[in-house]
Amino acid sequence: MPLLRRPANHDDHLDIDDENDAIDPQLRLRTVRTAHSTLEESMRTEDRAQRRKTMRRKKSRGFFRRGTDKKRAEKAESIAESTEPAAAPPATGLRRNIYVNTPLPPDELDLHGEPIVRYVRNKVRTSSEYRHYQQIRID
C-alpha cells in the first residue's frame, strides 16, 4: 500500500447489522443507509475514477511535447467535422393539425359537420388500465 494513500472508509458494518437479529429493529431503521448516502458514495467513486483518468492523461503527455499539440488539434477538428449531425430530410406529405378542447375550424369539416380526415387511433392499451380507472369514483 502506498504511503500517501488514505485507507478507504468502508461502511461494511451497516451490511452486517442488517443481517444481525440481535439488534433492536428501531435502531436498525435509524442506521439503514439512505438514498442520499448511497448516491453520495457513488458520486465520490465516480470522482475518484475521473481524477485517476486525468492523472493518467497528464502523465502520458510526457515532459517534452514537440508538435503534438498541432496534431491533436487537427485530429479534434477532423473528428468534429465527421461527427456533425446530418440535416434531417424534409418531411413528405401533409402535416397534421391537432386541436385540443377546441372545435374544428369550418375548413376541416364536411357538409354534415364531421371531420374530413380521420386518423387511426394511436394509443397502446395495456392490461394495467383497469388500475388507472379503479380510483375514479362517480358520486
UniProtKB/TrEMBL annotation:
UniProt biased composition (Low complexity): 79-92
Q: Where is the composition biased (Basic and acidic residues)?
A: 38-49, 66-78
Output compositional bias ranges, type Basic residues.
Answer: 50-64
User: Which portions of the sequence form the region Disordered?
Assistant: 1-21, 34-94
Report the superkingdom from the record: Eukaryota
Record-given protein name: Uncharacterized protein
Q: Which organism is it from?
A: Hermanssonia centrifuga
